[in-house]
Amino acid sequence: MDSVSAINTGLQGIKKGMDGLKKNAHEIANAKSGVEINDNSPEQAPGVNDITRPLIDMKLNQLQIEASTKVVQTNLDMIGTIIDIKA
Fold this sequence. Notes:
- The chain has 2 helices and 2 strands, in the order αββα.
- The chain has helices spanning 3-29, 52-86; strands spanning 35-38, 41-44.
- Strands 1-2 form a two-stranded antiparallel ribbon.
- A hairpin with a 2-residue loop joins strand 1 and strand 2.
C-alpha cells in the first residue's frame, strides 16, 4: 500500500467515524425521557434503553477516529522521513 492510499484510507475512516458520531448524537438528542414517576415509584419508560446503543456506538466511533488519525499521522511522518533522507 502506498502512502497516498494509506492516507486516503485513514481519512475515510475519520469521515466514517465522524458520520457515526453525528448519527448517534442525533439519536440521543431525540430519545425519550428515561424515567416516569407513578405513585412515587420510578419505572423505566420504553425509551430508556434508546440511548444505550448510540452511546456504545459513539465510543466505537471515537476509537475508529483515533485509529484512523494514527494511520494518517504515521504516513505523514514516513513521508517527512523520506524527504529528510533524500534531502
